Amino acid sequence: MAEPHDLTALEQAAAVARGELSSVELVTHHLARVAALGDTLGAFVTVTPERALAAARAADAAPPEGRGPLHGVPTAVKDLTLTAGVRTTFGSAAFTDFVPPLDADVVRLMAAAGLVSLGKTTTSELGCSLYSEGLVAPPARNPWDLACTAGGSSGGAAAAVAGGLVPVAQGSDGGGSLRIPASLCGLVGYKPSRGVVSGGPVGFGAFGLPTNGPIGRTVADVAALLDVLAEPVPGEPYLPPPRPDGGYLAAARGATPGRLRIGRFTAPMLADEPVHPDCRAAVDRAADLLTAAGHEVVEVPPPLGPAVWPLFETLWYVLALAPVPPEREALLLPLTRHLRARGAAVGAGALMATLGEIQAQVRVGARRSAGCDLLLCPTLAAPQAPVGWFTGACDPAADFDRQRRFSPFCAVFNVTGQPSVSLPIGRTATDLPVGVLLTGRYGDDARLIAAAAQLEHCSDGWDRHPAIWRGVDSANVNGSGVGGSTP
């Protein structure tokens, strides 16, 4: 028998609209799953059941007119994202008691659309790593294999969605932080074009690298949440590209991108690292499906190569310099302290020279791939990594280098500002997810979403669930007991 969490986010909202389920019922059901599985998965830092139920009651009481396609649906907010009145630790023991006085724009927009947040999802400290293993919450684990990491920095969001704790979640992506967890956990993780989603109301834009975005099980769910997040906000440092007619959900539902020229490559861009055969096989499968759908898939060189890594490295060091009270610096993790020490040594002149050279390299890469509508490559150089594998090196510099070699593709598209999505098209021999990266032209998010939805349809869908999906006995949905896991 289908449970509420078996439904996609759009199906849950449709059930609320038809009166078959209330938002309170959905929120109660998902809170029970959070209570039963949240710590096992390391999905949440802070759970807010009272706030969530109050918001659900308000959603149920709202007039039918003007309700959006995700009205009444449970969701979650990344612990890097400001949420008024809710503890926001930025994944760090240095901020364990911090409660912001204001909402980030994306939090405000989700609440206005009738989405109901259940709390704050686990992240890496200050968003500095591609795994979510800190001191303020259990490590974020992959629901497909609890010995493996759910990734980062939006690792808790991915664990929550892949484990059926929420159907869709907000995250952010400054170097792959949505797409990496999506690839590991078998989800759709979407990084919008620069400027599509507000990063406000505080901050300077961080050189345009990070952006808020959605993570979900299907392209349509992700597109629906993107429509919520992609509301223009005055004062943002980057102008948003024009919004498509009908919104991004219409593009996903249409799934008609037109005939495209798609450039395929598997050579890593930020490290001279062998790519695992399972990751190459996922690209091959995606290329075959796209070709069968009528697109031209051609081999192309990567836009950039490993020689640009020192430039990227300098930016990551500087971006780690988020304000931290001096008396709490000692509470930071060794990796964070290492990155901040390197960043503090970068002078203003060196930073300006780095930014100038990176832009020159972006121009080279853009001209190299100018003949392609989309680019297709692996999301990661390896399909999975165990919890503790990156920190197991003990040396923070070795930890950071392991991350670069594990993820040598995603970050390039944060620098270029292009829209980029990880899609769960592949599987390992042990049935674990493997993602591929599909990247569009800057501002052409609608075409990228339409192509992703078409690929989803051609693959006969990919909304598959791990054994832990059935880890809450339906008879105990209000009591949060853990039942036996079944496939």
From TrEMBL:
Residues 25-448 form the Amidase domain. Signal peptide: none annotated. InterPro entries: Amidase, Amidase_CS, Amidase_dom, AS_sf. GO terms for molecular function: catalytic activity. Pfam families: Amidase. It comes from the Bacteria. Belongs to the amidase family. This is Amidase. It comes from Micromonospora coxensis. The lineage of its organism: Bacteria, Bacillati, Actinomycetota, Actinomycetes, Micromonosporales.
